[in-house]
């Protein structure tokens, strides 16, 4: 920094352009990078244009010399402190370019990794889908075969059951016919017995009637004859004189009335 009375120092020459070797060390991945390498030309950091003598002259026109010198020194110290802080904490254009280049390289590597992972996942999913499709086709064929076999077995069971039912009905028909024949024979025997009983009863009734008639005839023949009947009595006619009341009867009626 020049003194207040000395002329300002000339600015330093621009810095020589440098490449970025940090990326060469950090890019250790084998994946291809899509970021092109380039060289960054950044000038060397120079002090800000602060002319102490001119600043002191301007302050001296307003303040006394001692105060102007103190203000100039305080301003210079503050400016130096801020410049040092900026140098310690700030980033240069070269650092920003390096960070941007590294960020782009990391993004490219991440993109390549994600693309590779996506392709691998897609291939895995496609393989699993193909295996599942083959398994489904195999299960479909097996299920159709099982259904066909089951239908055949069910049809065989139905036919066997139909034959068994037919045989059972035939046996029942034979048993019913045998029972019917036995019933017919039994009914014929009962009818014969009933006819025999009827004829026996008829013979007995005819014999009883004949015996009763014979007994009646014999009794009538053996009964004594009754005497001849007496002649009938002829009634006498009644006259009006017989119907007229007598005097005694009239008196009796009068007494009864009184």
Automatic annotation (TrEMBL):
Keywords: Coiled coil, Membrane, Mitochondrion, Transmembrane, Transmembrane helix. It is found in: Membrane; Mitochondrion. Pfam families: CCDC90-like (PF07798). GO terms for cellular component: membrane; mitochondrion. The keyword Membrane applies. Residues 1-16 have a biased composition (Pro residues). Residues 1-33 are annotated as: Disordered. The keyword Transmembrane helix applies. InterPro entries: CCDC90-like (IPR024461). This is Mitochondrial protein. It comes from Lentinula edodes.
């Amino acid at each position: 920094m020049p003194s207040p009375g000395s002329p300002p120092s000339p600015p330093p020459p621009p810095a020589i352009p440098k490449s970025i070797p940090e990326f060469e060390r950090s890019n250790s991945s084998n994946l291809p990078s899509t970021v092109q390498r380039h060289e960054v030309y950044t000038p060397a950091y120079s002090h800000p244009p602060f002319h102490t003598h001119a600043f002191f002259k301007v302050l001296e026109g307003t303040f006394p010399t001692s105060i102007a010198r103190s203000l100039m020194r305080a301003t210079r110290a503050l400016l130096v402190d801020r410049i040092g802080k900026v140098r310690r904490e700030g980033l240069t254009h070269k650092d920003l370019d390096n960070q941007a280049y590294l960020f782009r390289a990391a993004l490219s590597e991440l993109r390549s990794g994600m693309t590779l992972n996506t392709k691998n996942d897609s291939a895995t999913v496609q393989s699993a889908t193909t295996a599942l499709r083959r398994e489904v086709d195999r299960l479909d064929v097996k299920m159709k075969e099982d259904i066909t076999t089951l239908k055949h077995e069910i049809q065989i069971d139905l036919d066997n059951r139909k034959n068994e039912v037919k045989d059972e009905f035939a046996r029942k028909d034979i048993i019913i016919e045998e029972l019917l024949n036995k019933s017919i024979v039994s009914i014929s025997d009962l009818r014969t017995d009933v006819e025999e009983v009827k004829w026996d009863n008829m013979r007995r009734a005819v014999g009883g009637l004949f015996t009763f008639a014979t007994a009646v005839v014999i009794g009538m023949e053996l009964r004594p004859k009754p005497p001849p009947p007496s002649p009938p009595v002829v009634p006498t006619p009644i006259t009006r004189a017989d119907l007229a009341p007598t005097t005694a009867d009239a008196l009796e009626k009068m007494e009864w009335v009184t």
